[in-house]
Amino acid sequence: MISSRSIVVRTGIRLASPLALVVAGYLFFAGHNQPGGGFAAGLVLGAVVALRAVVGLVTPRRASWILALGGTIAGLVAVAPIVAGHTLLDQVVVETTLPLLGKVKAGSALVFDLGVTILVVGLIVAVLEALDVYDLRSRTSRSVVQSDGARVDPARVAAQPTDTESIGAPDDAGIERGGTR
Amino acid sequence: MTVWLLLALHVTAVVGLAVGGRRLTSRYAVFGVAAIAPLITAIWVASRLTSDDPYVTSITWVGQLDLTIAFRVDELSALLTLIVSGIGALVFVYAMGYFGPTATGLAKFGATLLAFSTAMVGLVLADSVWTLFVFWELTSITSFLLVGHKHPDPATRYAARRALLITAAGGLVLLAGLLTVTSATVSGGSGSVGLRDLTPVGGTAGAIGAVLILVAAATKSAQVPFHVWLPGAMAAPTPVSAYLHSATMVKAGVILVLLLQPALAETGPWTPVGLAFGLGSMLWGAIGALRHRDAKLILAWGTVSQLGLMIALLAVGPGKATFAALSILVAHAIFKAALFMVVGEVDVRTGTRDITKLSGLARSMPIAFVVAVVSGASMAGVPPLLGFAAKEAAIEAGLKLDGAERVVLLGGVIVGSVFTVAYTLRFLIGVFGSRAPEADDADRPSDVAPRRSPITAVTVPLALGSVVGFVALTAVSNRVAAAVSLVDEKAATFELIRWPGLKAAFVISMAIVAAGSVLGAALARQTLRAPEPLGARSVDRLVDVVLSIAQRIARVQHGSLPLYVMTMCLVAASVAVPFVGDVDLDALVRWDEPMQAVLGVVVLVAAAATVSVGGRLAAALSLGAVGFGVAGLFVVQGAPDLALTQLLVETVIVVGFVIGFGRLGRSFPRVGVAWRPIRLAVAALVGIGVMTGLAASASRPSGTPPLDELTAQSVDTGGGNNIVNVILTDMRALDTFGEIIVLAVVAVGVVSLARAGRTTDDESATLPDEGAADLLRRAEPVSAGDRIGGTS
């Protein structure tokens, strides 16, 4: 796919990734007083992960672990106040003065939001895994070496859903499917 | 605090075993770890047993609904917890001997059994109605997992499903019953109704509540006609049967009836319905036990019978009958656990539980034989054992009644007890006796594997328990009386009597033993056709019908994406129908700002382009334009958070399209001629529906939004100036939590949908539903299936 054909896109995404991380971090912390928040930060991170996956850069894997981590963090924040004798999801706000940053105010909602962020990233990683993006990438980078037009990739044909859509498609995959039937 | 620490210890051990249990290679280590929490719990509650100062603790977890998790350790719950945890610890030791060195999956088994034990401890310690309900449901779920432990076997799966369907249905009935009772006792919020503070409920609500509670108890306690799950549950490994079907799971129903007796005993249906359940089960269970060949099924049916006796006694309570019921509950937990364990030992050491195949075990398994004789005698009500004293109390309770109740209860108890003696004798002769040498191959004594010391280490103390219980009868009697008095003050004056003298009750007792012995000896070698459980067919058919309806409903999942989308859109559009009348065209304004019109045109054009262009890439780009246009509308409307989220979602979707195009054709497939008008019609309907909904919503007088209030609240409690986010993460954090759980579920759904078509289906994953019921019936008399993996 894009990975082997366009070094520009690949390099661009690689360079943009740290920037996007900063943006995500900003959105995450800004959400308290300005537009942003955990969900938005998670979407930015997720988009970066998806782009990196498409061009074959290193990305987080194992969606189940990420989902579990996010759910656990949010769940712990939800239950923790009960142990302390408060009600479910009670908010605790802490104010301290940190070096460099000055006065910082943070609540337990921030940790809860972190759980939301991680879970959103986990969802996108799960979708990427489900769509076999990682396998697709390694396979295409191999098959493109042969020629640019007719890619022979049996696994990809097998993975195609058997609905009417791909039969009518003037795609090379459709021709191969005819052979396998 | 102690209760919480104990529960935390249970949960820690469950999680530890489930996660890291595979590293424990020895079964001694696995079950040793599992036994710790029940053992400590048992020791602690034993120390609270004589304390008349109840220990109460509770945590409010939803303040607005007044929902609490509340526990109480008083004389009643301490006694019940001692049974649950004490037998639990013994069962884990027993499991060390029951499973062989080659058994696999033990960590999972130990974790599930301990999870069940935790649920049961919570159930007996519960102090509020809803705490009881939560743990009640937890026992249903964990027992389902335990019964289905050997899930590669289709008969086991069927049995587990049957148990779950019946007990879960009972859980729903219980919910309805508890709601009826609590709404009648407490006005307004019924969040935390203490189980010891229930007041009598009268009238129609009381009558309905009584029937519902009794039905719920009958499903859990395997009463006729809901008993069909219990014999099937014998498919579980024997430690499960020894635990669930002697001391815990089936007792939950009895405990429920006991706890709700103060509220419902005065209602009309309580006594007749309870007596019908109880005596019916007592008789039919005993008849079933007389006819089976599988020793474990004999005990299972005997359990149905004994539970019937307890329910019947509670139904005629309060007073002596209640006292007798709790006495029998204690005695039954001890002797039935020992008997199940002996059957498991016989199975493990000989390879069968079929009493027509076993022979000569009295000589080759002497310790097990003595344990079985003592425990069996206690079950039959032979002096000088605990079971005798308890049954005496039951008969005396019957004698104290008058009128029809006396005749019915006494008659039922006497006939049921005669049968009990008979099946006990048949069990003992069948399992341990030597058979007459008539069949050529089976006349020699059964081959017996070496003794396993953990089994002996548990069964002998349990057998001694029946003896010691009689020796220390005064102590047992005092504990039972103190426990019962918390529910029923009148019961405090009664006691268990060691030597009643030649009174009517004793004469009846001895007559029962004599008649039962004659019947049992006569039937001992009779091989009667193993009975269909009464109503088993109809319940099985009900299960089949439920499952086939479920499958038929599942056929709605036809697998056609266009049809799914059309269905969803039509349903969404039809939501607007009730609001058609609200549309007020005069109240609508063209736009708040001219920019909205411009953006609206952009969205419209982009939408039109999306459906009219031929190529997929162009369609995706047009769709993106729609999204960005909508985001622009949000900005103009003054909702930057919404716009930001919309933009980011659009971005992720674009990346998704980039990935998706790798596996799709460049242009859309042609739609069939017949489909085109249908799709157009659906699209038009959806458009009209959404428009109507929006117009109706815009027509409503909006009033002033509570902006100031929200701002103040958000800065005050949430500490943030962005109201939207403070609402999301603080004020409505529970909603957000629910939403992210939905996200996680969506992720699981996407992954499994995408993988469903790819992996070849595992053969065992598809259930042969039609034949499973017959398979189960065929499998019932078979035994020696009690091992996990390849134990021998």
Description:
The complex is a heterodimer of chains A (181) and B (792). Chain A is mostly helical and 181 residues long. Chain A has nine helices and two strands; from the N terminus they run ααααββααααα. Chain A has helices spanning 2-5, 7-30, 38-55, 63-83, 108-130, 133-143, 154-159, 164-168, 172-180; strands at residues 93-98, 102-107. Chain A has a two-stranded antiparallel ribbon with strand order 1-2. In chain A, α2 (7-30) packs antiparallel against α3 (38-55). The longest helix of chain A is centred in the N-terminal third of the chain and has 24 residues, at 7-30. Chain A is flat, with a radius of gyration of 22 Å. Chain A starts with a helix and ends with a helix. Residues 139-181 of chain A have low confidence and may be disordered. Mean pLDDT of chain B is 84; it is low at 760-792. Chain B has helices spanning 2-20, 27-48, 75-98, 106-125, 129-147, 154-185, 203-220, 229-232, 238-244, 249-264, 270-291, 295-316, 320-350, 361-364, 366-380, 386-400, 403-432, 453-471, 473-485, 504-523, 536-554, 561-574, 594-612, 616-637, 640-661, 675-699, 707-718, 723-731, 733-756, 769-779; strands at residues 55-62, 67-73. The two termini of chain B are 45 Å apart. With 792 residues, chain B is an all-alpha fold. Helix content of chain B is 69%, strand content 2%. Chain B contains 30 helices and two strands. A two-stranded antiparallel ribbon of chain B has the order 1-2. Classes of the chains: A mainly alpha (181), B mainly alpha (792). Chains A and B meet through α3, α4, α5, α6 and α7 of A and β1, α25, α28 and α29 of B.
